[in-house]
Amino acid sequence: MLFRLSLTAIALACLGSFASPAATLTAGSNASAISASFVVNGKAGALAPQALASGSAPPAYSKATSVPSLSKSQQFDILTLTGTGKNIKDTATGTAVTLGKITSKAGASIGSLTGTVGSPLGNVLTITGTKLVSSAGLAKTADKNTPTGTVSIGSLSINAPAFGISNKSYSGKPKPNFILYQSGDKKVTLYLNRQIKTTKSGKVTKISVSAVNLHIVDLETSGQTISGDLFLATGNAH
Questions:
Q1: Fewest CB atoms within 10 A around its CB: which of 62, 181, 207, 223?
Q2: What is the per-residue pLDDT for 24?
């Protein structure tokens, strides 16, 4: 009897070890309309992700945030970011572990957008856009993670002479990390379909996809020093 019990215990232990990779699979995702983080003249400021939808799995989830109209303003030392978005819908979904696989997705959509960055001398940036849409996804198994990301833009127009950007416009489906503008010293970069991937042990553990990303590194303009990022229509899957 003792021998049989021992065999049973060993068999259960082996089954547990085979099941553990699927059991430890987790996933999550979130989406937002706009977020920003800047350091201006050594002073840090941030605009938290707006119209956020988020969830984590297991168990399966489906979250959505719909906002007919959103207006936000955020101070960054002497600069003020002001934006208004309409017909915003952000979604986050995730599955339970099925056949050793778990999947998370995020989608961000802005129907229309107008925004400015103001200074004591006037606006240093003006942006307008329509139908800014992004999606991010990550499918996980014990052996492999597969990220996906897409962006479509109905229309986009940005003018920021202080940053070197002069009336840039775009409409369409940009390739990942498409550069609409980059200064010669690479201190200012305007990305479309900005995709940032985090990896660990050779596998992608997170993907972030933004329709628009203004990225600034140690820019000196009109006696001011600016670094940071502005993100529009962002989805994250992990």
A1: 223
A2: 86
